[in-house]
Fold:
Amino acid sequence: MERRLAKAGRLSIKIQFVAHPPALRAAALALIWTRNSQGKTMTTFDDRERAFENMYARDQELQFKILARRNRLLGQWAANLMGLTEVEADAYAKDVVRADFEEAGDEDVIRKVLGDLTSAGVECDEARIREALEHKSVEARRQFISEMK
Structure:
């Protein structure tokens, strides 16, 4: 038995049903005719691959924004400990965000904040900064989740 399916103008797919169990036929059709979130039909594996690549890019962008916000919050926390004014605190928070681009990981941010706190005469060790970094990470994620709703 053969069935012809036509969608979106010139697109035509010929599916030949042989003696496959119904579950296999349904799975094959699900792979071929999958609808995306906009309701458009995705007809090839290339479309699915593009969708996964787009999802990965969105996830990476979101992760970058969360880390930048975390670093800004950490900078504001450190500025508060140093007793900076609001304008100085904003400038310092931006400097902390920029410090994250020096090398991969959090070490560059921790090194900057620790050095600045020490030079300002604030008693602080690396463990306290790491703890604050973890708290600010959670706070940044919560802020993004609340913004998405």
Observations:
- The radius of gyration is 26 Å.
